[in-house]
Amino acid sequence: FLSNCVVGASLEEITEEEEEEDENKPTLLEASSAKLKEGTFQIVGTLSTPESHWPNFAVETYSAISREDLLMRLLECDVIVYNITESHQQVEEAIWAVSALNEEVSHFEKRKVFILVSTVMTWARSRPLDPDDTEVPFTEEEYRRRRNHPNFLDHINAEKMVLKFGKNAKKFATYVVAAGLQYGVEGGILHTFFKIAWLGEVPALPVFGDGTNVIPAIHVLDLAGVIQNIIDHVPKLHYLVAVDESVQTLEDIVKCISKNTGPGKVQKLPKENAFLTKDLT
């Protein structure tokens, strides 16, 4: 997505005509095979699996390089994005990267931006703002009150470290994006339900628990758009929550998948049964 964005494009007002053109814009696949447009972001990065193919949107990729070499690469970049939502090993590396870059701040020729893509699971145990009205929504300004799910202690510690190192924002601006559960392109968190529906081996799709829990989710391309906006705008707010405006429960989502790609039925199961599904981490 970013490799097709012209730097600063999100600062321009979009007219109605452009919005219509936008709706006809090429798909991700067409976009990634297009040649580098002028003034777009130049993407370099590490491969998530060293043996995988070099993606054609990247100018350079690295795998299995030393931290010393990685730091040299990071110092060449204006913007560094660390996604800690998919691989636990990335949490420790992100903390190392932001610390190592912070030590080099005095040598920066121009401002660098560091963006940590974290997860709303660092908010999972937060208490309602108003105990009598559980509908009052959380906002970014409340981030100091957030309480993490026990499995996401490392993630919240990484968030705190990243925010701590952004004190000199003129030289080194740091951001945390607490992303909703990601879906789209290859399915993400919802992939399991699509897979069960598509294989057609069960008469009904499982809903774990009573299904009334609202899932804070975000389409992966919308998340990419949030990151593009942070890079272009360098906002004053350094902690952002990125979720779709749709307020869908687990039951709503599974029913929709079942109706459109599966048997059309759902079945409520004890939530502990989710542990028996090896595809759900």
CATH level 1 name of the largest domain: Alpha Beta
Helix content: 25-40%
Major pleated sheet: 4 strands, parallel
Q: Do you know the CATH architecture of the largest domain?
A: 3-Layer(aba) Sandwich
Order of helices and strands: HHEEHEHEHEEHEEHEHE
State the separation between the terminal residues, measured CA to CA. 27 Å
Uncertain residue ranges? 31-35
Query: Could you say how many structural domains there are in total?
Result: 3
The CATH superfamily of the largest domain bears the name NAD(P)-binding Rossmann-like Domain
* Coarse morphology: globular
Using only CA atoms, what is the Rg?
Answer: 20 Å
Structural class: alpha/beta
Number of helices: 8
CATH topology of the largest domain: Rossmann fold
As a percent range, the share of strand residues is 15-25%
InterPro entries: NAD(P)-bd_dom_sf (IPR036291), NAD(P)-dependent_oxidoreduct (IPR051783)
Protein name: Adenylate kinase 7-like
Organism: Galeopterus variegatus
Note down, in words, how this protein is organized.
This protein has 281 residues and is of the alpha/beta class. The protein has 3 domains: 64 residues, no CATH class; 135 residues, Rossmann fold (3-Layer(aba) Sandwich), CATH 3.40.50; 61 residues, no CATH class. The protein has 8 helices and 10 strands. A 4-stranded parallel sheet has the order 3-4-5-9, sandwiched between helices. It has a two-stranded parallel ribbon with strand order 1-2. A two-stranded parallel sheet has the order 6-8. Strand 4, helix 5 and strand 5 form a beta-alpha-beta unit. The longest helix is centred in the middle third of the chain and has 15 residues. The protein is globular and about 60 Å long. The two termini are 27 Å apart. The relative contact order is 0.12. About 2% of the residues have low confidence.
